[in-house]
Design brief:
With about 475 residues, the chain is an alpha+beta fold. It has 14 helices and 21 strands. The strands form 5 sheets. Strands 3-2-1-4-6-5 form a 6-stranded mixed beta sheet, with helices on both faces. A 5-stranded antiparallel beta sheet has the order 11-15-18-19-20, with no helix packed on it.
Length: about 475
Amino acid sequence: MNDADPSPARLLDGLAALLDNHPHTRHLIVGYSGGLDSHGLLHLLATNRACWPGRTLAAVYVDHGLQAASADWGEHCAHICHELDIPFQVLRIDARPLPGESPEAAARRARYAALAAELEPDAALLTAHHRDDQAETLLLQLLRGAGARGLAAMPTASRLGPGWLLRPLLDVDRSELLDYALEHGLRWIEDVSNADTRFDRNYLRQRILPLLRERWPAVGRNLARSARWCAETADWLDADADADLARVVAQRPDALHIPALRELGEPRQRNALRRWLRRLGLPVPDARQLRHILHDALTAARDRQPCIRWPGGGVRRYRDMLHALPPPPLEHDARQTFIWRHETNAYPPLDLPGLGTLRLRATFGEGLRAETLAGAALTIRFRQGGERVRPVGRHHGQELKKLLQEAGIPPWERNRLPLIYLPSMPTLPHEGGGNPSLLAVVGLGIAAEAAAGPGEPGFLPVLQSPSATGFGIL
């Protein structure tokens, strides 16, 4: 069957192959904007759902709040989904850009973050990106001076949060989707902003690509082929970067050993840094920012703490470690206190806003002695200064400040580490000035007097980051 055939059978080919490659994906969620492309994909799935028994189908509309008509578009999407008997929901997001971030990038970042939060491990978001979109993306990346990973444009399948992002129409021209929509009498929304050539993608779509097609009719297909070759090259570079990162990454995944990193040549350093940041879910810095990292952070004196920031992320040096920084976190008030109550034979996960979720993981021979807790209400505080604790393996209590320095905990993280207290624990000995009820400093250690002994049941406190990256895993 040739590429010009607009029949449903051709449109289904890529979809069927993609789903066959992801057999554990049981819940399909279409990113539905109400436009031609996403309506075509949604209709194709809905009218052929019998081809994939055991899979559910739903649709989601993301309301960025950037257009006056966005609420009306959501109602249109709801009506179409009702006609197709497809569960539907609206996600309203805050798409305000970060400092230095373009409105388009901010909307994309906020959109995918909201969609990722909706996915379970057995779910996939399906988008209607097609071959014309792929050509535009490759040209945009070329004009931005992107490397192999950027020129790979959009992958057919990639991880999104705990689930998957699938693009089954990347080998389909938009003209084929238009033919399909007209043949089936679909009603879609025309977003007038798509004609606004102040936006780079629209300028390429409206002005540049039509000229290229006049001279080279197969330009879309050829650019998509180039993107596939670049993807192969990028995968090879990623494999090299992974080998280098295995030698330079620290015990925590969001930190690298600078002396080991400096042993690599600059091309390998840049390749490893890009790969490292992508694995952490951070946007990759541009060439200028990468130069700052290589020539400022990596070469700074050991007692300096240079920080390089870019929209959505950054890095900072502390001693001989390069730490990745997530987007600027919510303001953290170190004076706040949380009560962690025992419920139904367990301590439920405790949400610490801006920090993550605190959990107690059942263990043997490590963590807090189960007998010490005995179902008591715990108090969670943060460092104020003057705290003392005797960690496991130490004979005397020490100032928490010195212990944090010894452990190499970066200064900007120290007042964000949860301190677990038992309101009253008079049986525990303590050094003068120490607080006998300080049980644990999450990310540092357990007080020796409260620690589980060999073979004793215990609970290990763990702070899990609100994101899917390595940040805050303590």
